[in-house]
Amino acid sequence: MMNMVDVYNQINRYAQDNGLVLTVHEPGKVSYEMKVLEKHLSSPDTCHGGIIAGMMDSLIGAAALTVAFTENNLVSTVEFKINYFKPVCLGTVLSGDGHVDYKGKSLIISSGEIRERESGELVAKAIGTFNVYPLSKKKLSD
Known about the structure:
Elements: H1 2-11, H2 14-17, E1 21-26, E2 29-35, E3 41-43, E4 46-47, H3 49-68, E5 73-84, E6 93-103, E7 107-116, E8 122-134
Antiparallel strand pairs: 1-2, 2-6, 3-4, 5-8, 6-7, 7-8
């Protein structure tokens, strides 16, 4: 899985730019952590919902990717639905867990939850659909 993480980091800069730290537990099961920074705020002290959505897309997408990668494939987001449960403040460390619910030939369905790490309070839940395509179709930067 370390090779998968290397490839993922090479083709997706979003996680790096936003301080997301990926942990792969096994194919189909991952976690992410991220600290809410000033650049993530939409109003004083409150994180923009798009940042939570971006973390969630990364979370459930990485879960799908870990399964697809075992067959030399990548994934792209087709759609996902997210529910928000509470606002998140500056400095909060978010912890997300994602897992694959279904793997088909061309689609993978995965879901996830994001919580405040310290309190364990639920911030958001989502389910998404990911298109599976061959790694050979993606041009990797040098």
